[in-house]
Amino acid sequence: MTDTYARTTNTWRNWAGNVTARPARVESPASVDELAEVLRRASEDGLKVKPVGNGHSFTAAAATDGVLIRPDLLTGIRGIDREAMTVTVEAGTPLKRLNAALAREGLSLTNMGDIMEQTVAGATSTGTHGTGRDSASISAQIRALELVTADGTVLSCSADEHPDVFAAARIGLGALGVVTAVTFAIEPVFLLTAREEPMTFDRVTADFDQLVTENEHFEFYWFPHTGNCNTKRNNRSAGPAAPPGRVSGWIEDELLSNGIFQVACSVGRAVPAAIPSLARISSRALSARTYTDIPYKVFTSPRRVRFVEMEYAVPREAAVDALRELKAMVERSPLRISFPVEVRTAPADDIALSTASGRESAYIAVHLYRGTPYQAYFTAVERIMTGYDGRPHWGKIHTRDAGYLSGSYPRFGEFTAVRDRLDPDRLFANDYLRRVLGD
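Given the sequence above, the corresponding structure tokens read:
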């Protein structure tokens, strides 16, 4: 899952291919000092600046016609503090490299999302999350960060140092400056036992609160046009490790979840009428299984079938009603939906623009195969989610603007005040930020 970038034409595309940018120039600074110089020259030339990660956002959060900053050379672990149990990592480091490096040291993040191709800064700046009863998004695990602001100032931020900036910059949308390093809380590596099990939609929704309460990490996928779901419960285990067998793991994670699913999506795009039948087959293809492994090998999965996505966070108590309304909408509409709907949860956190800021949340994510017209489906879903005061994921497709978002986030004004102070001339602005933050 990497972005597509043609150096000869200065064209950048995101992973899904739905966002394209043609920056005036592209820079890959190798140090904080070089980055500050890039910002100075851009300001002198009257060009806007946007840092970009691995392109896994579905919005134009990183698009610019000015200076595009690639983090290729800002990678690696700066240091591990075993007394404080933190790791400080350069912002351009892919999460998969961080996870592997921590595992070699007998360490781990507490929670993570279901993919690990993003850069550290890209994932945290857009609010990437997994699912958890007690443990929150990857941004909520940040203990300090380093930020280069519009005037070249290097700010070290934490709960004790520039706390107002820290409260905003952990999910900063690239609006406050360029994140150059992040310090995460870590812990000794542990084992998770994953229990994957098919379950009916009616049972999952009836038992949703119990399933969330009884499991450290619970999520499920509902297959539209069916009454079938696939559930996943991850809980800490004393061991021993019992990873999926090489052959059985390949069959589940590669052949069924990627290879055959890719074929089914291609057929569905060409022949939409076949989608309900394909959905019934797909929803029965994955069997129950249990395995135990270190965290990143349980939390994350390969995602080789490309798609576009919308995801909304609603108050956790509204999740079942919102999901049932979504299901009813699909059933009465002519829509044909080839991708399952994903449902996850998160505890409340204290980050200004976190989708879980100040409230326990449930995430409902809808996807469509890349190249499939998505506007009708996503518009209908968005209408449902906003009816429950839904907050859109910052890196996924939505149409909300500052007028809506300022009413949904109690600390929205706190974030924009920090932005006004750090970037009064809007060096880091682009069309997406103008829409979601105002100007």
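The chain has a mean pLDDT of 93. Try to locate this feature in the token string yourself.
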